[in-house]
Design brief:
Blueprint: H1 9-20, E1 24-25, H2 26-33, H3 41-54, E2 57-60, E3 67-70, H4 74-90, H5 94-103, H6 109-123
Antiparallel strand pairs: 1-3, 2-3
Helix pairs in contact: 2-3
């Protein structure tokens, strides 16, 4: 995947549910989201149609009801999102992003140790 579909915050809520479990019907998604949203099934249908048009979800119409699945993998999507974030907000400088996370206490000691291991391993390549 070289381009990621541009998803709204609402569409991301659906993607997260689909990445956790797929395929799902529109009603399954509506029920899964009811704790964090007050969306009706019509809202979910509208969002799914938009997401299908963007290439973010696939629709299987072969069963008794339509089922939806992610058309993009979470890991690949996350990498492209991270690349866009570093490029757009940090001018392409990943060190600025990481230093901001460290300085604001957003990275735990365990995560810092893992980063140090990753950096050390990358330096050996």
């Amino acid at each position: 995947m070289h381009e990621k579909p541009a998803l709204t915050d609402a569409e991301m809520k659906i993607m997260l549910k689909l990445w956790d479990h797929h395929p799902q019907t529109m009603m399954e998604l509506t029920r899964a989201l009811e704790g964090e949203t007050n969306w009706s099934k019509y809202t979910v249908i509208t969002l799914l149609k938009r997401m299908e048009a963007k290439g973010a979800v696939t629709v299987d119409e072969n069963g008794p009801v339509k089922t939806y699945a992610p058309a993009v993998e979470k890991a690949g999507f996350a990498l492209l999102e991270t690349d866009a974030l570093v490029r757009d907000l940090y001018g392409g400088n990943a060190v600025l992003m990481v230093s901001g996370l460290v300085e604001n206490g957003r990275i735990s000691q365990k995560e810092l140790e893992k980063l140090a291991q990753l950096i050390q391993a990358a330096g050996k390549k």
